[in-house]
Automatic annotation (TrEMBL):
Belongs to the DNA mismatch repair MutS family. Residues 693-709 form the DNA mismatch repair proteins mutS family domain. This protein is involved in the repair of mismatches in DNA. It is possible that it carries out the mismatch recognition step. This protein has a weak ATPase activity. Keywords: ATP-binding, DNA damage, DNA repair, DNA-binding, Nucleotide-binding. ATP binds at G619, P620, N621, M622, A623, G624, K625, S626. This is DNA mismatch repair protein MutS. Residues 834-866 are annotated as: Disordered. HAMAP family: MutS. It holds the Pfam family MutS_III. InterPro entries: DNA_mismatch_repair_MutS, DNA_mismatch_repair_MutS-lik_N, DNA_mismatch_repair_MutS/MSH, DNA_mismatch_repair_MutS_C, DNA_mismatch_repair_MutS_clamp, DNA_mismatch_repair_MutS_core, DNA_mismatch_repair_MutS_N, DNA_mismatch_repair_MutS_sf. It comes from the Bacteria. SMART domains: MUTSac, MUTSd.
Length: 915
């Protein structure tokens, strides 16, 4: 075993405590890293890797960073997913006997960053913990920088993943030994997050409960409302234990765990949050172009974070929605009130994070100043809100406590422009502490004497170039150039020889130096102690400041919604107790805001659980189907946030969930095609939707063959329409205009189409939703708009004409047809030409023998260019008179009324009635 020096042995012992972290080991003015830690840090930070002797035969790899700039290096490593353990000297080197005692004072991890430069102002940074038992999950989420602590339990794995996706934790703690479990690895892959193993058995309910009760000073988990949630207790206790072990300091700012109740909020799964672009856009992950970016007129960081939580978790409680709407209306209708509120809030700093740093022990004098100035605006805010008619605003005003004593303390204690560091003096205002004032006076007088010493000695000695200086090594000195050394008095004592001169001291200068340095040393120590006392006093107000911060954040969100509503001409929605959604002249909030000078085409919507349950929307690409459906979902979501909505009028029946299936992409890493991703999302919807849900489906079945796609699409419509346990209000957009025929007899299905105007071989999108079905998809016209070559477009028209006339050699292997006896869709296989050697779905060769057998079953021998025969009733009825009647009809000359009469006659004959 290698022999190490005492210092390196101390390092090795310390490193053994944090084997999974990079150890920053304080040596003098540097933090040093050794061995593999040094190699990794040098690579990641792009700093020089050196070596040093440590008692072993070979040099030990080493690199280091200056202690005063270590924070930047630490944060860079944490951003890359590393944990960094900080080991500091915990005793005065001058008083130490032997090796200076060092201890790990903190472990910085991706989920425990407190430094403001690494935090997004208007976004939370969450650390999560998850425990699992018998298919159920307990979750805990903590933002260490604000003290927020939330817990929840889920019986469903997908719900657990959705919750994780909503919080987007930077780090997830799992029980020791479960790092390779399926759910843990899925979380790591889904979130691209850091996975950390907790301490041994800290997730056990007894140990978790003990940790929670001890930290929050209560005698029962009933105090948290968690008695019926053992897995939530397990996750919260495990998370708290992990925080205490890594932070190694007070966590008094942590709030009691708050349980996330599902019945109070609308549920939005990760697919829907992504598809509706609530927080960020699909294309570039930007806030600009997302709903949050549009709604964010907040002026405080706290308000920005709360608004994000509002958007991600709309309410499902009518009373609470109405309270918010009343407040938004008050601020919307009273411009002067709104502007006064905005001006006051603009003076508020991030109280949540400031007070967290106070409790954490890392707040400096500037932080205290920011807290004091922020709290000083509360009396004016209280006065402005107290005179309003909205109960939520008045209750906020009534809850604001008097912080005048605390504001006065901070103003009396801290100088106007304090330094960043609180350990170098210059922090405490004159007059706050008499003894401090005495030390300050002594220091000032000594420095004034020394400042006058230079002029006095020049006059006394006649040396005009003489000067008095100071450095940390030699203290105060008198410096004389070499040419004037002969004029130095005998009372001068040589202190240091320079190339161009000499430095001296005098007995009187040494005496003054001793007095000054002693006074300054005492002064700095006493100033720091005084500052800590002031900071502790601020910490004693912690709970009240946190409540004030929550109130300020809520007011900021409400004024933000009112400001947006005023700018965008939004109206207050009516929140209904029934399941009806009626929107008159609704608009897509984000698309409308992005249009430059072009008016947005508004549309109406009616949905309920009866005759307007499903809106089947057909029409070409780019005609506005997806925009229309998204706008309905966003209007409902805005209403349940408590916001005004982009419409002329809106009646919103509260929905419990919004589901969307809009677009998809391959998940190649997970081995899933676009179609598989689509089906997974669809399965989630059909398994979890209820009659109070809103479903948005766009182009279901387009990822597979035409007939498989139509089959799935119709089956989904039937399931939603006929299944009373689902029965959700649904907007269903499709290119399969054939579906409108299949669903004509469904009482709850209404047909709509996007209005387009044909101009020659082109089309104009009018963006209007009409109460009628489309009979064409206009695919070639859209392809023309996209810029496809003319020869491709011309050939496509030829093929389309041949397909429509049944003359093309490129034919499907089957077709879809409504069953006139039952209204359901029937898929039938038909013989194909020998030249057609691949099926559409699987690409497998079709043997000529099978083709010939198919021809014989059809009752006729035809050449390979023959058209596909459409069978209504099977092989035995090919020559049925109904078939002959259909063959004789000139479809292109039928009027709509003639077509209806013909269908009625054929239907009667098929059922055995008279024509």
């Amino acid at each position: 075993m290698a022999k190490y020096t005492p210092m390196m042995q101390q390092y090795m012992d310390t490193k053994a405590q944090v084997p999974d972290a990079l150890l920053f080991f304080r040596l003098g003015d540097f933090y040093e890293l050794f061995f593999d830690d040094a190699v990794a840090a040098a690579r990641e930070l792009e700093i020089t890797l050196t070596g040093r002797a440590g008692g072993s035969d070979e040099k030990i790899p080493m690199c280091g960073v200056p202690h005063h700039s270590a924070e930047n290096y630490i944060l860079r490593l944490v951003e890359k997913g590393y944990k960094v353990a900080i080991c500091d000297q915990v005793e005065d080197a001058s008083a130490a006997k032997g090796i200076v005692r060092r201890e790990i004072v903190r472990v910085v991890t991706p989920g425990t960053v407190m430094e403001s430069k690494a935090l997004q102002e208007k976004a939370n940074l969450y650390l999560a913990a998850v425990t699992a038992k018998d298919g159920a999950y307990g979750l805990a989420f903590c933002d260490l920088s604000t003290g927020e602590l939330s817990v929840v339990e889920h019986e469903d794995e997908q719900a657990m993943f959705d919750e994780m996706m909503r919080f987007q934790p930077a780090e997830v703690v799992v029980p020791a030994g479960e790092e390779q479990s399926e759910y843990a690895l899925t979380i790591k892959e889904l979130l691209r997050t850091v996975l950390t193993a907790a301490g041994e058995k800290t997730h056990r309910q007894d140990r978790a409960s003990e940790a929670l009760l001890g930290h929050f000073g209560v005698i029962s988990v009933d105090s948290f409302g968690l008695a019926q949630h053992p897995l939530a207790i397990s996750a919260a206790g495990m998370l708290l234990t992990y925080l205490l072990s890594t932070q190694k300091r007070s966590l008094g700012h942590l709030k009691m765990p708050s349980y996330i109740t599902s019945d109070e909020y609308m549920t939005l799964d990760s697919f829907s949050r992504r598809n509706l672009e609530l927080i960020e856009t699909l294309r570039d992950k930007s806030k600009h172009g997302a709903l949050l970016g549009l709604l964010d007129e907040t002026v405080t960081a706290m308000g920005g974070r709360l608004l994000r939580r509002f958007v991600e978790r709309p309410l499902a409680n009518k009373r609470r929605i109405e309270e918010r709407l009343d407040s938004v209306e008050e601020l919307h209708d009273h411009l002067l009130l709104r502007e006064d509120v905005r001006q006051l809030l603009n003076l508020v700093y991030d109280l949540e994070r400031l007070v967290a740093r106070v409790a954490y022990g890392s707040a400096n004098a500037r932080d205290l100043q920011a807290i004091g100035s922020s709290l000083s605006i509360l009396p004016d805010l209280k006065e402005r809100l107290g005179g309003t008619a909205a109960t939520l605003l008045t209750s906020i005003a009534e809850g604001i406590v008097d912080f005048a004593p605390l504001v006065d303390l901070i103003e009396r204690a801290v100088v106007d422009e304090p330094p960043v560091s609180v350990r170098d003096g210059g922090v405490i205002r004159d007059g706050f502490d008499p003894y401090l004032d005495t030390l300050k006076q002594a220091s000032r007088e000594g420095k004034r004497w020394i400042a006058n010493l230079e002029a006095a000695e020049r006059e006394k000695t006649g040396i005009k170039s003489l000067k008095v200086g100071f450095n940390k090594v030699f203290g105060y000195y008198i410096e004389v150039s070499r040419a004037n050394v002969q004029y130095v008095p005998d009372t001068y004592e040589r202190k240091q020889t320079l190339t161009n001169g000499e430095r001296y001291v005098t007995p009187e200068l040494k005496e003054k130096e001793s007095l000054i340095l002693e006074a300054e040393e005492k002064l700095i120590d006493l100033e720091y102690q005084t500052f800590v006392k002031v900071r502790d006093e601020v910490a004693s107000w912690l709970a009240n400041i946190q409540l004030a911060a929550e109130s300020i954040a809520l007011v900021d969100v409400l004024q933000s919604l009112a400001t947006v509503s005023s700018k965008r001409r939004y109206v207050r929605p009516e929140i209904m107790t029934d399941d009806r959604i009626e929107i008159i002249e609704g608009r897509h909030p984000v698309v409308e805001a992005m249009l430059k000078g072009e008016p947005f085409v508004a549309n109406d919507t009616v949905l309920d659980n009866g005759s307007n349950q499903i809106s089947l929307i057909t029409g070409p690409n780019m005609a506005g189907k997806s925009t229309y459906m998204r706008q309905v979902a966003l209007i409902v979501l805005l209403a349940q946030i408590g916001s005004f909505v982009p419409a002329d009028r809106a009646q919103i029946g509260i929905v419990d969930r919004v589901f969307t299936r809009i677009g998809a992409s391959d998940d190649l890493a997970g081995g899933q095609s676009t179609f598989m991703v689509e089906m997974v999302e669809l399965a989630n919807i059909l398994h979890h939707a209820t009659p109070k849900s809103l479903i948005i489906l766009d182009e279901i079945g387009r990822g597979t063959s035409t007939f498989d796609g139509i089959s799935i699409a119709q089956a989904v419509v039937e399931f939603l329409h006929e299944n009373p346990q689902v029965g959700a209000k649904t907007l269903f957009a499709t290119h399969y205009h054939e579906l409108t025929t299949f669903t004509e007899s469904f009482a709850g299905v209404r047909h709509y189409s996007t209005h387009v105007q044909e101009k020659g071989e082109g089309i104009v999108f009018l963006r209007k939703i009409l109460p009628q079905a489309a009979d064409r998809s206009y695919g070639i016209q859209v392809a023309k708009l996209a810029g496809l070559p003319q020869e491709v477009l011309a050939r496509a028209r030829e093929i389309l004409a041949e397909l429509e006339q049944g003359k093309s050699d490129v034919r499907p292997t089957g077709y879809a047809q409504p069953d006139p006896l039952g209204g359901a869709m029937i898929l039938r296989e038909e013989p194909v030409a020998a030249a057609q050697v691949e099926t559409e779905d699987e690409g497998r060769s079709v043997a000529p023998e099978a083709v010939q057998k198919g021809k014989k079953r059809a009752g006729k021998e035809k050449d390979d260019s023959s058209t596909l025969q459409l069978s209504l009733f099977g092989d035995a009825t090919l020559e049925h008179e109904i078939v002959e009647k259909l063959r004789s009809v000139d479809v292109m000359r039928l009027t709509p009324l003639d077509a209806i009469n013909l269908i009625y006659q054929l239907h009667q004959k098929a059922r055995g009635g008279a024509e």
